[in-house]
Design a protein that fits this description.
CATH class: Alpha Beta
Structural class: alpha/beta
CATH topology: Rossmann fold
Distance between the termini: 24 Å
Bound molecules: thiamine diphosphate, iron/sulfur cluster
Shape: globular
Number of strands: 16
Oligomer: single chain
Strand content: 15-25%
Order of helices and strands: HHEHEEEHEHHEEEEEHEHEHHEEHEEH
Largest sheet: 8 strands, mixed
Strand order of the largest sheet: 4-1-5-6-12-11-13-14
Radius of gyration: 20 Å
Length: 338
């Protein structure tokens, strides 16, 4: 693993000028990935329509990507990005990989290329799920990044199949007795392993060393790597400024989106999230930080005390059960070797 200090001094292909919300986890993830990939190898990103795309490639206004100018003899420094439709970032990345490999095989391309796709969870595991699974199944040598903010954010915060139970979204509103989203999320980590990925991870830049190492490892595997990045969304999750990293850590440690890294042939591990509920931080505190759960848990403004809303106790218990099942499933998943 390169040293954190060395990577911090690299040039990031994600540059100033995006219109992502201030404090958006996606911009932190892209900043970091941008630096890790500035490693002397030409980088190509494909990016599907999502917050990360509409806020950074709004030609001719905002184009927040690039590594400055490079001459042909600085091929390893160069960076390119392809915007493609919503659900097709992995497919387009696979196409880039195939073309690069074919050019290499016939001697026309002398230098290596590293290829990344970037999607939101809506693009990757809702509308684009079928395409994503087939690209994994073909063992395409790419890294897929899925920025999981649990909603279709840029089109109005609609539910996605990654949405946490009981979250209020624009298409699963908490109204009357209905406590928001009633569907448990798709088990996308297990699904990616079953489809044939060589590296599967769930990690955010809040676990900075782990994040950097995972991105570096993803570029070294022979087949497909997929990294799901839990991405607290200040506008959709509705929390106060400055809490993005705290929420990323609290949610991971409380078992809502545990940090998880798995490699084919080696197995995996759950990091910084205890298996027993009694050893994990309070779920109520995690819920109370976000107004998308205000219908079940609230914080007293004067005392700061968190309390379950009267009549919502069974929803909090159901949430606790889902979280425990989630953590247990990941511990078991970590034991799979191939
Ligand atoms: C085929 C197709 N359907 C719908 C849309 C409209 N659309 C653009 S982005 C988007 C939501 C993206 O959600 P997600 O991938 O989760 O990214 P986020 O906005 O949350 O970053 C939708 C529905 C589209 N561009 N193409
Ligand atoms: S809506 Fe959410 S995901 Fe989109 S830019 Fe804002 S904070 Fe980021």
């Amino acid at each position: 693993m390169s040293s954190i200090k060395e990577v911090a001094q690299r040039d990031s292909c994600f540059r100033a000028g995006s219109t992502l919300c201030p404090g958006c986890m996606e911009s932190m993830a892209l900043q970091n990935i941008g630096r890790v990939t500035d490693n002397g190898v030409k980088t190509c990103f494909t990016i599907g329509t999502s917050c990360a795309e509409v806020s950074t490639l709004f030609f001719p206004n905002v184009v927040a990507w690039g590594r400055g100018e490079s001459s042909p003899d600085e091929f390893g420094k160069s960076f390119s990005i392809i915007h493609n439709v919503f659900e097709s970032a992995p497919t387009c990345a696979e196409a880039v990989r195939d073309v690069a490999d074919a050019l290499t095989d016939c001697g026309a391309l002398k230098n290596p290329i590293q290829v990344f796709s970037v999607s939101g969870d809506g693009g990757a595991i809702a509308i684009g799920l079928r395409a994503l699974l087939h690209t994994i199944n073909r063992r395409s040598r790419i890294t897929m990044i899925v920025l999981v903010n649990e909603v279709f954010a840029n089109t109005g915060f609609q539910y996605s199949p990654a949405a946490t139970p009981f979250s209020d979204t624009s298409t699963t509103p908490a109204v009357g007795d209905v406590p928001g989203n009633l569907n448990p999320p798709i088990d996308y980590l297990h699904m990616a392993i079953a489809a044939g990925a060589d590296l599967v991870a769930q990690v955010s830049p809040a676990h900075s060393r782990m994040f950097q190492k995972t991105i570096e490892d993803s570029m070294a595997v022979k087949g497909t790597a997929i990294v799901f990045v839990p991405a607290p969304c200040i506008s959709g999750w509705k929390y106060v400024d400055g809490k993005t990293i705290d929420l990323a850590l609290d949610g991971a440690r409380a078992g809502v989106y545990p940090t998880f890294v798995w490699k084919r042939g080696e197995g995996g591990k759950v990091v910084d999230c205890k298996r027993e509920a009694k050893d994990r931080p309070s779920l109520e505190e995690f819920l109370a930080e976000q107004r998308r759960f205000v219908h079940i848990v609230e914080r007293d403004r004067k005392t700061g005390e968190v309390r379950v809303k009267p009549g919502r106790e069974h929803h909090v218990e159901a949430f606790r059960t889902w979280v425990q099942d989630n953590v247990e499933r990941l511990y078991q998943l970590a034991e799979i070797k191939k």
